[in-house]
Amino acid sequence: MDRRNSVEIQAISVEEAVRLALEQLGRGRDDVEIEVLAEPSGGGGLDEEEALVRVTVRGFASQPTRVPGGGRRMPPGRPAPAPPRAMPDEEEDLGDPDEVTATALTVTRELLGSMGFQVRVVPQRPADDAEESGPPTVGVNILGNDLGVLIGRRGEYLAQLQYLVNLLVNRRVGEWTRVSLDVEGYKRRREESLIGLAERVARQVERSGRPIQLEPMPPNERRIVHLALRDEVGVSTESSGEGDLRRVVIAPKR
């Protein structure tokens, strides 16, 4: 039987939507990535909007089946997602790596080997989490089997691993260099997912005339959303909140 790896669920609350999604996928919270596509409006009236979440099994690009809380399948109602720009199990042909890139590849390979992971480490063009100003950025992609443990919830383990790799690489090369670490193309899939989310929510904001706040995101992901909508004539974006709860608010442009 064909088992779905991603669903979108609409329910009265985020927790209820997540619970229903986990039941349909037959998975636990540690096995999935959860994206809150829309918060419930909480107005209490007949026009109150429900929560909408996308739940995807780790290691699979999302091609969701949308199901509301009651379980009735809904028609797609939106264009198919764009194909990924590069398959995560394919190595990009970037030519021979320079000295800094070669050092980053070696450091990453040695570090993961010492942790017991059997992986292939290849160069790639950095995902769109690099700062516009700062040192040159080197892209490194980690390929292998069952590497979801290196990513963590919202990429938190990957961020910690990237920080450690950056410390080791900078110590070896003796100059300020930034390494953008990826695992099986996770960052690229996440970037495409965030751009699609931003565009869908922007259309909803334009229709309703009301602002919508997205789930809390780290700075690099908020930047992707801001850039995705910076040329939109009907909406504007701003970050709101503090610390780990900081999120993007998409609002009608006045």
TrEMBL record:
- Chief location: cytoplasm
Where, subcellularly, is it found?
Cytoplasm
Name its GO BP terms in alphabetical order. cell wall organization; peptidoglycan biosynthetic process; regulation of cell shape
From start to end residue, where is composition biased (Pro residues)? 76-86
Give the start-end ranges of region Disordered: 62-96
Q: Which Gene3D superfamilies match?
A: 3.30.300.20, probable RNA-binding protein from clostridium symbiosum atcc 14940, R3H-like domain
Xref: InterPro entries: Jag_KH (IPR038008), Jag_N_dom_sf (IPR038247), KH_dom-like_a/b (IPR015946), KhpB (IPR039247), KhpB_N (IPR032782), R3H_dom (IPR001374), R3H_dom_sf (IPR036867), R3H_KhpB (IPR034079)
* Residue span(s) of domain R3H: 188-254
A GO molecular function annotation here is: RNA binding
Which terms are listed as keywords in the entry?
A: Cell shape, Cell wall biogenesis/degradation, Chaperone, Cytoplasm, RNA-binding
Pfam families per the UniProt record, alphabetical: Jag_N, R3H
Q: Which GO terms describe its cellular component?
A: cytoplasm
Q: Which family does it belong to?
A: Belongs to the KhpB RNA-binding protein family.
Could you give the domain comment from the record?
Has an N-terminal Jag-N domain and 2 RNA-binding domains (KH and R3H).
- State the HAMAP family in the record: KhpB
Record note on quaternary structure = Forms a complex with KhpA.
What the protein does comes down to: A probable RNA chaperone. Forms a complex with KhpA which binds to cellular RNA and controls its expression. Plays a role in peptidoglycan (PG) homeostasis and cell length regulation.
Please report the name of this protein according to its UniProt entry: RNA-binding protein KhpB
Question: By which gene is this protein encoded?
Answer: khpB
